[in-house]
Amino acid sequence: MKPTAYVLAALVATALSAAATARPVAKSSALPISPDAIDRTAARAMQAFNVPGMAVGIIKDGKLIYGKGYGVREYGKAGSVDIDTLFQIGSNTKAFTAAALALLVDEGKLRWDDKVIDYIPEFRMYDPYVTREFSIRDLLTHRSGLGEGAGDLMFYPATDFSRAEIIHGLRYLKPVSSFRSKYDYDNLLYMVAGQIVAVVSGQSWEDFVTQRILDRLQMKACAASYGRIADRSNVATPHVMVGGKLIPIKPLQLTAIAPAGAISCNISGMAKWLQVQLDSGKTADGSQLFTPKRGAEMWSANTVMPLNPALAYLTHTRFKDYGLGWVVQDEFGYKRVSHTGAVPGTVTWVTMIPELRLGIVVLTNQQEDVAMEAVGNQILDAYVGAPKRDWVAIAVAYKDKQMGESKAIEAEAAKVGAAAGPPPLPLSAYAGHYRDPWRGDAEVRQEGGKLVLKISRTQDLVGSMTPFRGNIFIVRWNDRSLDADAYVRFSQGYEQEIDGMTMRAISPLTDSSFDFQDLNFKKVQEDPKPRTQNLR
Fold first, then answer.
1. Architecture of the domain delimited by 427-524
2. CA atoms within 13 A on the CB side of 78
3. Cβ(12)–Cβ(47) below 8 Å
4. Which of 209, 236, 188 is nearest to 91 (CA)?
5. Which fold has domain 5-388?
6. Using an 8 Å Cβ cutoff, are 274 and 350 in contact?
7. Can you tell me whether residue 425 is helix, strand or coil?
8. Model pLDDT for residues 355-398, shown as the tens digit of each residue
9. Which partner for 79 in 73, 275, 299, 503 could form a disulfide, CB atoms 3.0-4.6 Å apart?
10. Residues 96-111 pLDDT 10s
């Protein structure tokens, strides 16, 4: 969606203003790309993709040689982004969870290939064989057999599920591939990995990561969760585009699955984190956070990842694998270790080239990931000797194509919906209580001559339903920032009564954490009451 002219002009002004007044950490002679070129790339990316604030850091040969903030922490307000501005780093948290386990491996308290059920007896997967064989390494490598984002609706949009309830829910999630046969990104199993840390150490994951990593590395402002941020005077606000307008949103506090994505950090702190990674676990005082052997293990391939042919051509990438909390690939003959992170309204980008002792960090407070990719890749190109190309232009072309395909699908759905007649059954036949084994209850009710769907344990998944085709409806969520409208397909029993419903996202761009396709609601009696058993 295109921004209004006012928003576009304001973003350009803030980006250029920040670029003109911010000062690099070190002399420009240390950089193969000029500060002005970085400034221009950041400003263009922010303008093209409506990003109000961005922070960029370059770590080289043991030092933060370049660090700068661009734009503002919250659109429409005066607070500028700098290298100490905190951003939610999302899935870049996963490397911290892997490192926490590495510390315990170093101490001889566990092994990567220990079985999860030996530490968490209540852990169950859908297949009993997988449950028995599931290792700590499997928790970290996205090869469980579950589909991408499976079960994420237990924590997103914000819910009241506990970690214990999410672990219990795993047993109901059906696999989409054989165990250890292919890569599908997940979040829930990293939460389980965090629970392993808690069981073995006797501390919560949050306390362990804070004391053993963040405090040890003097990452002073960084916090293991949003709720633990001590000083909120310099924190980036997340933003999304809704109806062509840039709006701030409330930060999603990932309490239940913190080990998968809850850390907040800044350029100053991430520089220290990447330097320890690049120095094989050695800290600034010369001691080891983790041993070089553990560092090598975290950077070793475990799961083959699919290559995007177009991107692989641009980066000369021939292999791409997932290690332990890190993506490992080749790029122009160099080994690249990287990850990205995303929470609603914020995306982050981290890349290291160990051979060059190089680390690059890009943090943004708008969920448009192509903006951070453009800035990060433009800097990376200068270090790896890539051909000269314009990554902002590449990103714009990619996004335009992506959006064009999505809009065509959504337009066709709208066209069919507009021509749809009434559903084959009266609305009262669809109304009622429904239950899914892992996500819980949902209600379909009649309001003002139409149906409304409300999924339990969250305030956000409420929306009106309109007929689409036959027993298929479209639900459009009241919170338009979710950008996740979905089909709802009702099923009928042998007596033609409605007995269940399934769901699927309309747009291919819908975030994978809306794993509607994993839901299988069955209709239950009105005001269902818990069953009791008479045990003898």
1. Beta Barrel (2.40)
2. 0
3. yes
4. 188
5. Beta-lactamase (3.40.710)
6. yes
7. coil
8. 999 999 999 999 999 999 999 999 999 999 999 999 999 999 99
9. 73
10. 999 999 999 999 999 9
